[in-house]
Amino acid sequence: MIRILIVDSDNESTHSMAQILQEEGMEVSIASNREETFLHLDQEPIDAVVLSLNTTARWGEDLCRATRERTVAPLLVVGKRGQELALARSLNAGGDAHLLMPSTSSMLLSQVYALLRRVGLARPGHAGQFDIGTLAINVFQRQVRVNGAPVRLTPTEFEILRCLLNNAGRALSYRSLARQVQGYECSSAEARELLKVHIHNLRKKIEPIPEKPAHILNVRGFGYLFERRRFDRENQSQAP
After folding, report:
1. SS3 (DSSP) at 73
2. How many domains is the chain partitioned into structurally?
3. Is the Cβ–Cβ distance between 63 and 54 less than 8 Å?
4. Which of 36, 72, 109, 162 is deepest in the core (most CB within 10 A)?
């Protein structure tokens, strides 16, 4: 299930947005201040954040920046007409897209789905199925197949794969990935050592050639990246 965090100090608008997203089958968490926002980001696997500029522009800008430091989940900034400058500053501070209110429910959903598609998540009705070369992943059923055969992943291995897939094409730092998988903070060096063995085992299970990974790539000195398209590009380049 797709998990959305709404950050909004206005209970009425929060309820309205939450209802729209829940009717789409999404799980919605709500934060009304900075502390609650960080608590949700640190303790839950969040797929996207909707942040409403219902207080001061500076509050939104600062919270966008702090949120981006804590998660790579796509961030939709919602503001009212007349707040265009505040929206621009929030985008510069880490937001991925904006929405002017009042707006329709379909416009809110289209923006959320557009951001989810960027990180490899489909509509709930698509069952979260991804077919990537010889690799097939269903993130909602927690199933992985290679060449049609089921692959048994440990819970930690699956969470690593899910986090990387949800951010396909974007590098995740060791600390960010470890925090999302394990749920607690640690240093970059500790996170790197923690992940190393799991990544090694995961590659052995899903990569065509584990020694030359096509999907789970190293980003030297920073972390890991999931490449969804590499297999297809290589196949196309070799095609007659």
Report:
1. coil
2. 2
3. no
4. 162
Annotate 115-165 with three-state secondary structure. Answer: HHHHCCCCCHHHCCEEEECCEEEECCCCEEEECCEECCCCHHHHHHHHHHH
Please, are residues 141 and 127 in contact by the beta-carbon 8 Å criterion?
Answer: yes
Distance of CA 10 to the CA centre of its chain: 25
- How far is the first Cα of the chain from the last one, in angstroms, to the nearest whole number? 40
- Integer Cα distance of 137 and 213 in angstroms: 17
Q: How many CA atoms lie within 13 A of 113 on its CB side?
A: 16
**Within this chain, do residues 136 and 93 fall inside the same structural domain, yes or no?**
no
Do residue 168 and residue 114 come from a single domain?
no
Q: Which domain holds residue 166?
A: 127-238
For residue 111, the domain's CATH number is 3.40.50.2300
Which residues, in sequence order, are CB contacts of 139 under 8 Å at separation 6+?
121, 128, 130, 162, 165, 166
DSSP state of 214: S
82 shares its domain with 170: no
Task: Give yes or no: residues 64 and 88 share one domain.
Answer: yes
Task: Please determine, for residue 144, whether its predicted confidence score (pLDDT) is greater than 60.
Answer: yes
pLDDT digits (tens, 9 = 90+) for 66-118: 887 777 788 898 888 777 777 888 888 888 888 888 778 888 888 888 888 77
Q: CA torsion 30→31→36→37, rounded to 10°?
A: 100
Let me know whether 112 and 199 are in one domain. no
